[in-house]
Amino acid sequence: MDYGFDFSFISDFWPSLIAGLWVSIKMAAVSLVGGFILGVLLAVARGRRPGAIRYLAGGFVDLTRNTPLIVQTFWLFFGLSALDFRVPAFYAAVVALAINTSGYTCEIVRAGIDSVHHGQKEAASCLGLKRGQILRYVVLPQAIEKMYPSLISQFVLMMLATSIMSEISVEELTAIGYQIQSQTFRGFEAYLVIAAIYLLMSWLLRVVMTLCYNVAFPKQRRLTQARLTARRQAKKQASPSTVMNEVKS
Questions:
Q1: pLDDT, tens only, 93-138
Q2: How far, in whole angstroms, is CA 2 from its chain's centroid?
Q3: Rounded to whole angstroms, how far apart are CA atoms 39 and 107?
Q4: Predicted TM-score (pTM) above 0.90
């Protein structure tokens, strides 16, 4: 293998890479907020008593989760254009990402809602809270807190899915990689840089979401810190003979 790696050309394309990165960040941010809000609303609708709203929400979730994201994107961009209803590529991409994310977010949040003990809802009802207040102040905070790690993983996947939107001519990060490769014929180096940027974006998104978790749920943060402190103290107090006996048992 006599391939010679050369990354010198990357310096000429930094402005384009930064512009593509900014488009990817905007898509991810708007889709994250929209998908989360729509997903929570769908989860609430699916938790209602049997009726039209519940079945409509269930059908919408099944449709979004059982069809490919790229097909949903093509339908919004090319399908609606065939009906003389043209949607700009960026907005079609954002709507497709938000809709697709909402289906998975709905199921994650719904699992969190189901995990809240029914006794808490009865206690809140005895205190005079209405159904909407119980959902807002008792059920949803606990559901989101419990399922937050799963939501972080889903949002990272959504952010990475923005790379698909180059298929409808959105000038995001992967599309810039196409352009660099076609002009320099250095596809390996170009996509290696693109992959490194996506890796950094994923890490930063996890850090930001974790910080938001610590701010939004300080009680859970204190409990976690207390558990870690207790474990450290238990390890310090454990004698070597005690540790050996535990290992033998």
A1: 999 999 999 999 999 999 999 888 888 888 888 888 888 888 888 8
A2: 41
A3: 8
A4: no
- Per residue in 38-68, pLDDT (tens digit) is 999 999 998 877 788 999 999 999 999 999 9
Token pair in block for residue 97: 């990402």
Q: How many helices (H) and strands (E) does the chain have?
A: 12, 0
Which helix (H) or strand (E) element contains residue 143?
helix 140-161
11-216 fold: MetI-like fold (1.10.3720)
Q: What is the pLDDT of residue 222?
A: 62
pLDDT above 90 (res 184)? no
